[in-house]
């Protein structure tokens, strides 16, 4: 299928590793020019080489998505290097993993900045241009905890559910402007975040990281942990021309783990 986005300009937040990297590579494979931000210059150099191997225009910017000034600088650098932004993928590594009783006001404030306000700020930067051109795609990478909360991920469960509300609200506001806004809710996918959560759990109960990952895989109807490129492929479709009638959705990509009807 031709996704119809060759030549579009995409911004992918936290795109040097994990699901952000997978999204950036999937969009580049469809012919998009891609701008990636991240905090690790070496990781950015690696993904830059991977993207350029796909023969598309690339920009990389060292930036922290929790900082408003970094996001504004990244957006400005992207448009200067590649042109007006057509596609935005919001993404972050996730807030502190802890049960409610172990969380401080500072933990909650940091989570709001890195998980919610960064999304608000990124959307605010790109929407005026998308509206003026009457075309745009926004995809928020969040988590299945938006639909199935988990005690160890108290902050994430709270804020990801809020992002689903923001997704629907923005979709309602922008649909007549040719813009779609969707959230993608990954389940267990083999990324650094998945390994980190297994490490947190193993420290609490004495099981090894490998045992926790095996348990996670066994809990999934598909019988395995997902691969980042599987998530990237879904993101590319959500950004496509054929997906123009799909908006306001919070889409699970979890191997069937969340089993609720809605």
Strand pairing plus helix content: what structural class?
alpha/beta
The separation of the N and C termini measures 29 Å
Strands side by side in the biggest sheet:
3-2-1-4-5-6-7
- Strand element count: 7
Uncertain residue ranges: none
CATH homology superfamily name of the largest domain: NAD(P)-binding Rossmann-like Domain
Number of helices: 8
Q: From the 3D structure, determine the CATH topology of the largest domain.
A: Rossmann fold
Describe the largest sheet.
Answer: 7 strands, parallel
- Roughly how much helix do the residues carry, as a percent range? 40-55%
Strand content: 5-15%
Radius of gyration: 18 Å
Q: Which second-level CATH architecture of the largest domain applies?
A: 3-Layer(aba) Sandwich
- Top CATH class of the largest domain: Alpha Beta
Q: Report the order of strands and helices.
A: EHEHEHEHEHEHHHE
**Please, what is the average pLDDT?**
94
The global form is globular
Write down the domain tally: 2
List the topology elements.
Layout: E1 9-12, H1 18-29, E2 33-38, H2 41-52, E3 58-62, H3 68-81, E4 87-90, H4 105-133, E5 136-141, H5 154-174, E6 179-186, H6 192-205, H7 209-219, H8 228-238, E7 250-253
Parallel strand pairs: 1-2, 1-4, 2-3, 4-5, 5-6, 6-7
Helix pairs in contact: 1-8, 3-4, 4-5, 6-7
Short description:
The protein is an alpha/beta fold and 262 residues long. Helices cover 47% and strands 14% of the residues. The chain has a 7-stranded parallel beta sheet, with helices on both faces.
Keywords:
262 residues, alpha/beta, Rossmann fold, 2 domains, 8 helices, globular
């Amino acid at each position: 299928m031709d996704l119809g986005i060759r030549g579009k300009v995409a911004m992918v937040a936290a795109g040097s590793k994990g699901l952000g990297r997978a999204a950036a590579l999937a969009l580049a494979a469809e012919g998009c020019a891609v701008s990636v931000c991240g905090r690790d210059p070496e990781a950015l150099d690696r993904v830059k080489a991977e993207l350029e191997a796909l023969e598309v225009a690339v920009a990389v910017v060292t930036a922290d998505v929790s900082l408003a000034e970094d996001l504004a600088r990244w957006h400005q650098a992207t448009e200067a290097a590649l042109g007006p932004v057509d596609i935005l993928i919001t993404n972050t590594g996730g807030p502190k993993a802890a049960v409610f009783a172990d969380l401080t006001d500072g933990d909650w404030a940091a989570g709001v900045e890195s998980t919610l306000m960064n999304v608000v700020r990124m959307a605010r930067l790109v929407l005026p241009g998308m509206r003026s051109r009457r075309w745009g795609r926004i995809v928020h990478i969040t988590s299945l905890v938006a639909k199935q909360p988990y005690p160890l991920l108290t902050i994430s469960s709270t804020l990801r559910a809020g992002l689903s509300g923001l997704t629907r609200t923005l979709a309602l506001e922008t649909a007549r402007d040719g813009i779609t806004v969707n959230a993608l809710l990954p389940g267990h996918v083999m990324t650094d975040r998945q390994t980190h959560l297994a490490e947190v759990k193993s420290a609490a109960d004495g099981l090894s990281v490998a045992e926790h990952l095996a348990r996670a895989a066994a809990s999934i109807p598909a019988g395995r942990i997902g691969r980042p490129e599987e998530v990237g492929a879904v993101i590319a479709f959500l950004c496509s021309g054929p997906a123009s009638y799909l908006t306001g959705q919070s889409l699970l990509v979890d191997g069937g783990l969340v089993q609720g009807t809605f």
